[in-house]
Specification:
Blueprint (H helix, E strand, L loop, with lengths): L2 H21 L5 H24 L3 H19 L6 H18 L1 H24 L1 H7 L2 H8 L4 H4 L6 H22 L5 H23 L3 H34 L6 H33 L6 H28 L20
C-alpha cells in the first residue's frame, strides 16, 4: 500500500471526523450519523495502516482519533453494583479457577520447601545457632515466648489491619512483578516459605511444633492459599511474555494483566478475611481444635467458591477479563 496516496485519499475524512468530535453535543441528527460512519471508516483505515504500512506518527494520530470517536459514540460507561456482583460471583473465581494449574503446583512445591527448611533447621543445632543465640532462641520458643505473644502483641483490630495490609502488598507484588519473567515472584515466595520453615524448625526443636501449628493453621490456610494464587498468577503472567500462544504478545499480556489486576482486588478481600481470623481468632482463648476448625472452614469455603462458582463461570467462557465492550479492539491473528 502506498501510504502517501492513502493519506491523500482519506485525510479529508479524518479532518471532518476531528471537526465533528470537537463540536461535541452540538450535532444534528444527520451529523451524528455522519460521525458514526466516519468513525467506522477511520477504524478500518487504522487497521489497514497497522497491518500493511505502519507509520508511528500516523498510527498515533488515528489511534487517538478512533478512541475519541469511540468514547463519543458509545458514551462513557460507569461501573455499577451489577459489575461488582458479576466480578465477585463470576469474574474473580473464574480467574482463579483458570490459573489452578499454576497455583496448585506452586502451593505443593512451596509447602514442600518450607517443610524441608523446617526439618533442616530442627535437625541441625549448628544451623539454629547461626540464626540466633541460644538464649534468644529459648525466649522465642518457650511457653509465652515471642512466637506465642506475637499474635496478641497489639489490639486485635489494629493487628488485623496491619496483617491485611502487609499480605495484600505481598500478593499485589507477586501479581505485578510476574511480568518481569517470574524471578521476583519466586524470590518473594521463597522468603515467605523461609519464614515459615524457620518457625517450624525452631519450634519443633523445642518440642512445641503442635503449639506453632495451632497458631498458624487457623489463619495460615487461607492466607497462604491467597499468596499461592497470587504467585501462581504472577508466574503465569511472566510465562505469557515467553509464550503468548496464538495471541500477539501485546494482546496476551494485556488480557492476562487485566485479569491479574482484578485478582489483586479480589485477593485483597480474601486476605481481609484471613486478617480478621489472625487478629481475632488466632490469639483468642478458644481451644486449639476450635481455632483450627474455623481456619479449615474458611479454607473449604474459599475452595468451594473457586471450584464451584469459578468452574461454572470458566466453563461458560468467563476469563476474569473486563466486559468485551470495555476492551480495546484487536486485530485478528492467525490460528
Amino acid at each position: 500500500m502506498d501510504l502517501d496516496v492513502f493519506v491523500t485519499a482519506h485525510h479529508a475524512e479524518w479532518d471532518r471526523l476531528d471537526h465533528l468530535l470537537r463540536r461535541g453535543r452540538r450535532l444534528t441528527g444527520a451529523e451524528a450519523d455522519e460521525l458514526v460512519a466516519l468513525y467506522q471508516r477511520t477504524a478500518t483505515h487504522l487497521s489497514l495502516i497497522q497491518s500493511s504500512a505502519p507509520d508511528p506518527s500516523l498510527t498515533a494520530r488515528l489511534t487517538q482519533l478512533v478512541a475519541r470517536a469511540r468514547a463519543t459514540v458509545t458514551g462513557t460507561r460507569r461501573a455499577s453494583w451489577r459489575d461488582a456482583t458479576r466480578f465477585l460471583t463470576a469474574g474473580f473465581p473464574a480467574a482463579i479457577y483458570r490459573t489452578r494449574h499454576w497455583w496448585v503446583p506452586t502451593a505443593v512445591l512451596s509447602i514442600a520447601v518450607a517443610a524441608v527448611i523446617g526439618w533442616w533447621i530442627g535437625a541441625h543445632p549448628e544451623v539454629q545457632s547461626a540464626i540466633a543465640a541460644p538464649a534468644e532462641l529459648r525466649e522465642m520458643t518457650r511457653p509465652g515466648g515471642q512466637y506465642e505473644t506475637y499474635y496478641s502483641s497489639n489490639p486485635a483490630a489494629s493487628f488485623a489491619a496491619q496483617v491485611w495490609t502487609n499480605n495484600a502488598q505481598a500478593a499485589a507484588m507477586c501479581l505485578v512483578l510476574g511480568a518481569f519473567l517470574c524471578f521476583p515472584v519466586l524470590w518473594i515466595l521463597f522468603l515467605n516459605m523461609l519464614n515459615l520453615g524457620v518457625g517450624i524448625g525452631l519450634m519443633s526443636s523445642a518440642g512445641r511444633l503442635d503449639v506453632f501449628l495451632g497458631l498458624v493453621i487457623p489463619h495460615g490456610l487461607l492466607e497462604l492459599t491467597a499468596v499461592f494464587v497470587a504467585a501462581g498468577t504472577g508466574l503465569r503472567l511472566g510465562w505469557t511474555l515467553i509464550d503468548p500462544g496464538p495471541r500477539t504478545r501485546r494482546a496476551a499480556l494485556a488480557q492476562e494483566g487485566r485479569a491479574a489486576l482484578g485478582m489483586a482486588l479480589g485477593l485483597a478481600l480474601v486476605l481481609f478475611v484471613s486478617g480478621l481470623i489472625e487478629g481475632f481468632v488466632t490469639p483468642s482463648g478458644l481451644p486449639t481444635w476450635a481455632r483450627i476448625t474455623i481456619g479449615i472452614a474458611a479454607e473449604l469455603a474459599f475452595l468451594v467458591y473457586v471450584y464451584i462458582l469459578g468452574g461454572r463461570a470458566a466453563r461458560a467462557g468467563d476469563r476474569g477479563d473486563v466486559e468485551p465492550a470495555d476492551r480495546s479492539a484487536e486485530l485478528p491473528t492467525a490460528a
